[in-house]
Amino acid sequence: MSLVIVGSIAFDTIETTSGRRERIVGGSGTYSALAASFFTRPRLVGVVGRDFPKSTMAFLKKRGVDLRGLAVKPGRTFQWEGRYGEDSNQRTTVRTDLNVFGRFEPVLPAAYRGADIIFLSSIDPDLQPRILDQAKRPRLVAMDTIRFWIETKREAVLRELGRVDLLFANDEEVKLIAGDPNLVRAAGRILESGPSLVAAKKGEHGAMLFGRDFTFGVLAHPCPHVIDPTGAGDSFAGGFLGYLDRAGRSGPRELRKAAVYGSVMASFVIEDFGIERLRTLTPGQITGRYRFFKKLIEF
Amino acid sequence: MSLVIVGSIAFDTIETTSGRRERIVGGSGTYSALAASFFTRPRLVGVVGRDFPKSTMAFLKKRGVDLRGLAVKPGRTFQWEGRYGEDSNQRTTVRTDLNVFGRFEPVLPAAYRGADIIFLSSIDPDLQPRILDQAKRPRLVAMDTIRFWIETKREAVLRELGRVDLLFANDEEVKLIAGDPNLVRAAGRILESGPSLVAAKKGEHGAMLFGRDFTFGVLAHPCPHVIDPTGAGDSFAGGFLGYLDRAGRSGPRELRKAAVYGSVMASFVIEDFGIERLRTLTPGQITGRYRFFKKLIEF
Predict the structure, then answer these.
(1) H helical segments located in chain A
(2) In CATH, what class is B3-297?
(3) What is the pLDDT of residues A23-65, one digit of tens each?
(4) Which of A162, A249, B32, B44 holds its CA 20 to 30 A away from the CA of B170?
(5) Whether ipTM exceeds 0.85
(6) Do B299 and A294 touch (CB under 8 A)?
(7) A184, B224: Cβ pair inside 8 Å?
(8) What confidence tens digit (pLDDT) does each residue in B121-161 have?
């Protein structure tokens, strides 16, 4: 079992109704690797600048994240600035400085090439073939994408879909990719174009999992104080794939549980700014919330 | 066991992405009574004009709806015109002609006064005390409300809340009543002001049930072709209360099942314009979809 995650590692400046934080560690790769680290030992492929804090590297390692695929390049780390209004499902990007991430040439270390699961987390869709060509026969390839790539590199995103098993995307992005305002139909169309699974993330409304022969729905944890929604979707994917990697199988039973663990991990991340909540999170708290989710929907 | 529903009976003109229908029968009382009729024999209190079709009266009676509380007055029946865009959770009211409903003086026939459950479905909040003063000791009083009343008669809505056990409202309305953008907190505030239960309806995202000591979430049926969302919320409440009336108890176990039956009834109504789908719906189809809901969320 092994899970390789390719994604961004960033400094985020974030403003929410709970406050503002400047240059805190974020990025899709960071969130998904940390979330996955509660289930397996994920391998992270990404790039940072020389300004990236050693203490965060140490924290990632302590959580069991394999950093042999993390390149440190001259220059500055990717920076993102965003703002959330009262509706935490809506965010505005204020500024994006790609810095070293703009010249990202992902290389899978030899030890990563036999990975069972590969997750391409919201990266430039043009990078996908180069990454997959370095891998042997992964059991499962997953991708996430963002509105920016769907709007600016639509053809590349559609090509990328043809080579993956599982698409993670927000419900709005699923509709945008398929060009259909109905989520169920939109997911159905995407299932015809390559992936055998679509995980549609719906923020505070949870997530839906659409397969060719099954549909599964999971709620979000009813959270009275969303401090910072950043990274919720990446943590969903990280928890999902981390669990699947640990389970060693991806039948309907495992996929359902994976989606719940994804929602559980997302529910913790939003309880504090950035990756803070993951510093104190314990396996017992994860199990407790998993049980809460069972109770929440039981009838 | 008996359930009294006080609500509107209307002619609706509706435009959705699936087409347009003029002057079809609708109204909150109609939808909730019909949905409830699959579980119990609801008693409807409302008013129509002399233009109301005898065939619809006959259909309501055939479904077991008690119409002794339905007044037929000189004048025209309430008319509403609305339009839905691609997002079926959003609707625009084009026109409202209250007609006889504007002079609605609800009277509970003697046989209705000992009702176990009373549902005040989106009516003028000023009417509430007059109705409740006619009732003996109902086991449960429920209300639904709409943005229009919250915005134009806020004080009356808040007073109304003080006399009910259960509030049905859209998630946006729950937030608007409480003045809080977070649904969980907003529901919590409403629970402090009277009701012991808040059922927050979220359209395609399902519904959440908030009590003082429990939270329950139910999904919506993943529907690939929403023909007409009108009446979904009223049918949710009708199915919910119809089931509770039949169950004869309203403990947490019954409330959870009630919410699922509510979601089941809403899921059928949106499959056709107006009340059409309820004309062909069978108990077997309801049971089948209830089982589907179990499977949908099982992990």
Answers:
(1) 28-36, 54-62, 128-132, 147-152, 154-161, 171-178, 183-192, 232-247, 252-269, 276-280, 283-297
(2) alpha beta
(3) 999 999 999 999 999 999 999 999 999 999 999 999 999 999 9
(4) B44
(5) yes
(6) yes
(7) yes
(8) 989 999 999 999 999 999 999 999 999 999 999 999 999 99
